[in-house]
Amino acid sequence: MADALNGLKQGLTHYGDAGFSLFLRKAFIKAMGYSDKALERPVIGITDTFSGYNACNRSVPDIIEAVKRGVMLAGGLPIEFPVVSVHEAFSHPTSMYLRNLMAMDVEELVRAQPMDAVVLIGGCDKTVPALLMGAASVDLPAILTVAGPMITGSHKGERLGACTDCRRFWGQHRAGLFDELEIEEIGNKLAAGPGTCMVMGTASTMALVSEAMGMMLPGGAAIPAVQADRLRHAEATGERAVMLASEKLRPSQIMTKNSLANALRVLQAVGGSTNAVVHLAAIAGRLGFDLDLEELDQIGAETPVLVDLKPSGRYYMEDLFKAGGLTAVLREINHLIDKECITVTGKTLGENMAMQPASWPNDVVRPIEDPVHRGGGIRVLRGNLAPKGAIIKQAAATPGLLKHTGRAVVFTSLEDMADRIDAPDLDVNADDILVLQNAGPKGGPGMPEAGCMPIPRKLAVAGVKDMVRISDGRMSGTAFGTVVLHVSPEAAVGGPLSLVRNGDLIRLDVEEGLLELLIDESELVRRRSEWTPPSHTHVERGYAKLYFDEVLQAEDGCDFNFLRAKPREVLSATSG
Ligand code: FES
Ligand code: MG
What we know:
Residues 363-558 form the Dihydroxy-acid/6-phosphogluconate dehydratase C-terminal domain. With 576 residues, the protein is α/β, with parallel strands linked by helices.
């Protein structure tokens, strides 16, 4: 047993004397057929996020094989172990409701089982945040790789991608442009293979910001799932994990306040998913600091959107890969990022960038002087309707609606919206503002991606493409429209959003960062005195009880209160 790297001794449970405990542990691991020689190597755990329900992680078994090869090449012993795997489409009531369960699973299994370092393999939206949250809390040397984006499909010569085009074509089907047969045909082409949604959705965004934070080897975020480079990246990740184990470089040394700021910068520059704001807040909370929404806003004001990907642009992740991936983006915002942040390579972000091939002009990553959108992707809003903040993805919004005052048309829950949104007698005009209550962390539960409410059918048929929509829910990173999200505090805990009534006037001014309910304070006080919490938030048992008792609001990443770290001095802004 090597002394410096003795994974098998990690967290040794005591059955009698320590020698006997190790003897017992070795006896059981030898049931796997390992020799003593194999067990002398550093143990590298590999999280297995494959699941028959997780289409996006279909290729994870191949990635695991490549990681194992890398670990063996570098002299380690790879041991894979299953963790919870959450897919967007198969997670009732929401994938976000289950993210913390996965994060707890990752934390406890990495801590409980003997390993010197861990390779985290993520993919679908919630898996990367859950892996990083768990790894941040354990703080064992860890390195991330991802399943990678899907390649695009095609319908009648037009490129298709999950799931921006899912929404676009479904909207057109609702408006009567496609019959059942054609929409079925399109459904066969939207998710064209293994891997994650290939637009700038949450999975792509989290992969890119994780690489920017330094938790992934350079170049890994954008490689398509089916490309051979994906497996070479996985092999290199396994090799590097063995070095990390001996260097003892920990997630808390990599995911610092400054590298989180780099992540926010990249989030804005790639026009990333609003969901990343919630996930980065949760990761920050695990490391002992708050994600500063003012800082996000400030960074947004300085950072234009440079990456021309759907839903706000034209291209797909495979195009970003061919255009040089994240490095091409980082070079454009070179003067705005902190290049001293240490990464999983053991080198700084700046050193990593210098080692990547030179960038070249292309249409996908635009030069900073000719951006896709000048003002940054995400803007933070405040006002009496959102005292703790709300956000809007302005790059995906209709410019003419960014300053708008309108009459509220209120839906009190997701069910209420589903029941009435298409009713021919719904009192709604194109200038109105659709308001959805009780779609927040507790209300949804899990902040369902319902914030991008459908345009009421009678308006959609008349050609209305966008309206101002406001909720305490989230929006898929693949969606678009003038959609105000993450209103906090949420309606289900009595936030001002719960007090909005049909016909109230609401003012949105994105440039000013304002979201105001134009109602007398006395009337709000009266309404507040009549408010009662929704009954579904009172739960007696199981994970649901834990969830409703402990879940925090959007600005704290919807993590559980007891999972946040106590503030750590070492992570203050000055020490980075
Ligand atoms: Fe898995 Fe989109 S559904 S990444
Ligand atoms: Mg998504």
